[in-house]
Design a protein that fits this description.
This protein has 317 residues and is an alpha+beta fold. Helices cover 47% and strands 21% of the residues. The chain has helices at residues 13-29, 44-54, 61-68, 72-84, 106-128, 132-149, 169-185, 189-205, 253-267, 282-291, and strands at 88-92, 100-104, 161-163, 212-218, 221-230, 236-244, 272-278, 294-303, 306-316.
Length: 317
C-alpha cells in the first residue's frame, strides 16, 4: 500500500529492518541479483517485460509501464532494443493511429520459452523442500502479503462459497486450527483442546435462531470457518474460531466471514458483539478493526507454551 507522505515516526524501526531483511533474503532466494537472470542473456526487468508480452497481444507501452511501474524512458529504450533483435513487433492500433500494440514475434517466443521453463522448475524445486502442509503455509503467507500491500484488494480470482457445516466439518475445524496455529505460531496441544471444547459446546447446545456457524469452501475443499454464539453478557454475541486456511488466503475471506457474523448478529437482535484474539494475529486484528471493532482491553499471558498478549475487542450494534 502506497502513502504519499509516510511519517517515519509512526513506523516501528524494527518492522522496517524486518522488511528489508526479508527483501534481501527473498531476492537471493530467487536469484534476481544475478547478472543473467534464470541463466538467460537478460536481466530481471527485461524478462518481466517479455513475460507480460508473452501473456497476450494488444498491449501498449503505456500498459506495460503501468503494470510494472517502469520509467517510460527506460522502457522505451528496452523496447527499441527488443525490436532491433526481432523479439517484438509493433502493430498500429485500428482505433487510434497514434498508438501501437506490442507482441512477441516467433523469435521472441522462442527466446523467452527457456526462461519461463527455468522459472517454473526453480519454483518447483524450492517448494519440493517443504511438505504439502508447509507449502500451503508459504503460499498463504505470500497471498497475505500481496493482499495487505494492495490495500485489501483480493489477490486472486478464485471463487468460494459459504455454507452451513456438514458431517465432518466440526472435526475439520478443530484439526485445522490445531495444525495451522502449531505451524505458524508454535501453539501446543492445550490450544487444540480449547478448540475442541468450543466446537463441542456449539454442536451440543447451539440455538439455531441466534447462533450460527459458517464453513468456507473453495474448489470442494474447506478453507475457512467462523462461529457466532450467545455470550454470557445480555444481548451480546461472541465471534469464535475465525480461521482462514493458507489455501484460502488472499481472497478477502476473513473479512467476508466477519461481515456475515455482524449481519447475522444485527438481524438476530443482538446489541453488541465481542471477541477474544491475540496481538500476534495481525491479519485477524486488521480485519476486526476494518469491520468496526474496538480494542477494549489486553493482558499478558503464558498460554499454550508461549508468552502471548490476549486482546478483547467489542462492537456496538
Amino acid at each position: 500500500m502506497k502513502t504519499d507522505h509516510p511519517d517515519p515516526a509512526r513506523i516501528d524501526q524494527k518492522h522496517i529492518a524486518d522488511v528489508r531483511r526479508f527483501n534481501r533474503f527473498y531476492t537471493r532466494q530467487i536469484g534476481v541479483l544475478r547478472k543473467n537472470y534464470l541463466d538467460s542473456p537478460y536481466s530481471l526487468g527485461e524478462l518481466r517485460v517479455l513475460y507480460e508480452l508473452s501473456r497476450g497481444d494488444d498491449l501498449t507501452a503505456s500498459d506495460i509501464a503501468r503494470t510494472l511501474d517502469l520509467d517510460a524512458g527506460y522502457l522505451s529504450r528496452l523496447l527499441r532494443d527488443f525490436e532491433k533483435k526481432g523479439l517484438i513487433k509493433r502493430t498500429t492500433s485500428k482505433l487510434d493511429a497514434r498508438q501501437s500494440h506490442l507482441s512477441l514475434t516467433a523469435q521472441g517466443r522462442k527466446v523467452y520459452a527457456p526462461a519461463e521453463k527455468r522459472s517454473q522448475s526453480d519454483v518447483a524445486a524450492m517448494l519440493a523442500k517443504l511438505d504439502p502442509a508447509r507449502q500451503s503455509v508459504l503460499v498463504g503467507a505470500m497471498r497475505t502479503i500481496e493482499t495487505l500491500l494492495e490495500g485489501d484488494a483480493p489477490a486472486a480470482t478464485e471463487s468460494y462459497i459459504l455454507r452451513a457445516p456438514r458431517h465432518g466439518d466440526f472435526g475439520w475445524m478443530v484439526a485445522a486450527h490445531a495444525v495451522n496455529y502449531a505451524q505458524e505460531y508454535g501453539w501446543g496441544d492445550p490450544f487444540e483442546g480449547l478448540c475442541a471444547q468450543i466446537v463441542a459446546d456449539f454442536v451440543n447446545n447451539n440455538d439455531p435462531s441466534c447462533e450460527r456457524c459458517w464453513i468456507a469452501e473453495l474448489n470442494g475443499e474447506n478453507v475457512g470457518c467462523v462461529m457466532l454464539v450467545k455470550d454470557a453478557a445480555p444481548d451480546t454475541a461472541r465471534i469464535r474460531l475465525l480461521l482462514v486456511d493458507p489455501k484460502g488466503r488472499g481472497l478477502g475471506l476473513g473479512r467476508r466471514l466477519t461481515d456475515e457474523c455482524v449481519q447475522f448478529a444485527r438481524a438476530s437482535g443482538y446489541k453488541k458483539i465481542t471477541l477474544w484474539t491475540h496481538s500476534i494475529l495481525t491479519a485477524a486484528r486488521h480485519i476486526y478493526q476494518k469491520a468496526g471493532f474496538t480494542l477494549t482491553s489486553s493482558e499478558q499471558r503464558h498460554t499454550w507454551g508461549k508468552d502471548v498478549v490476549a486482546e478483547f475487542w467489542d462492537m456496538e450494534l
